Amino acid sequence: MILSRRRFLTGHVVTSLAPALLALPALAQERYPSRPIKLVVAFAPGGVADIMGRLVAQLLQHRLGATVIVENKPGGDGLIGMGEVVRAAPDGYTLLVGGFGGQIVPPLMKDDFPFDVRRDIVKIAMTAEFANVVVVNKDLPVSSIAELIAYVKARPGQLNFGSSGRATSDRLAAELFMLETGTKMQNVPYRGGGVALNDLMAGTTHVMFPQLPAVLGMAASGR
Q1: pLDDT at res. 28
Q2: Alpha helix locations (H) across 43-192?
Q3: Does 11 have pLDDT greater than 60?
């Protein structure tokens, strides 16, 4: 999901990002873009948000003929990246790659959330939707969901799962899994999915519930 300051583009939802931005000259200025565009990714490199951000940046550079700079601003369940975009000038040159775990769930979970997501930012385009999947460290002696449930039940609270934050889709998927199966694992939150996956492969954590694109290569290689 691509987001920007509300005064830049008000309530315009399209199926791809490029048509929305190509329509901007009438909304923002006589010629757009006349300088580089910054695309803020609110999570660390290697996760789905980062992957999508870099794909969108390539598309924009091709369609608009402009330089698009991707900047990772991880932390605070996407709050740090969102804050940079909210504080930027509403001129269309600072965009946010956000989503479920960054701009939808945290405001519902935190009474003191510092931004009004309905006022301060607006969705420009839905870029993709992904399923969350279950992955385990290759040395964990399980090869199916049933085996994983039995293994965790036999060791309540002894296993942990990595997540890309406290209010992200992978964290909520893990909580739903535990609720539905009667199991208990400890959450280890990271600043992004890529970092969490690295620790999963290293054996620091046991289980993860990431979005599919981030783990396709690792799964195919047997890691």
Answers
A1: 46
A2: 48-64, 79-87, 105-109, 117-120, 145-153, 169-181
A3: no
